[in-house]
Design brief:
Layout (H helix, E strand, L loop, with lengths): L2 E10 L6 H4 L9 E10 L2 E11 L9 E11 L4 E9 L2 E9 L2 H4 L5 E10 L2 E10 L7 E10 H8 L9 E11 L2 E11 L3
Antiparallel strand pairs: 1-2, 2-3, 3-4, 4-5, 5-6, 6-7, 7-8, 8-9, 9-10, 10-11
Length: about 190
Amino acid sequence: TEGAEISFELSGQRLDGWSKITGTRLPGWGPYRVSAHTRYAGASLQIDNLRLSLDGLPMQPSRLEIGSGKATIGTQVDTRLAAEGKLGETAFSLEATSAPLPRLLQATGAVTVSARGTVAGVALSAEGTLGVDSLAAPFDLALTARGDALALARAFAGASAGTPLPVDLSARVSRVQASYAVKALRGRVVEC
């Protein structure tokens, strides 16, 4: 079989320096550093040992680090991403799966997505369909959240440490045209 392997490391002051090369206007975030080992074979790209450091995000905390990550992208295989890292000083992990790359790049329709992760010790998941037309495209997702609801506020909004607020929530959330719907909202909040 044909194939190629490349390891790379890139760093710079701002992501928007790559806009002419990508043909897309990129944000001015930075400085950044990214490295990975890539392998192309059988019409798919495997990315291993992904590491990323990016400052200047338009939120607090403004720093994203991926300490380890991997991805698979191809024409006939599902797109997959797994990453562990930090937002500021808060640990996160993410595993996501969706359609093969040609389907993701189509200008119309919807794709199936599945994502699971943790941030600040809260387990989050989403499964369902997302429109690929625009940011305002329809979606239909089953969402869950389990853990200390206040952990996110403490990590990202500077809330002071206090009594945890354990939650176990699930719902189906959808958007069609300009309308949103929440169905099958279930859960419990355990008061301490």
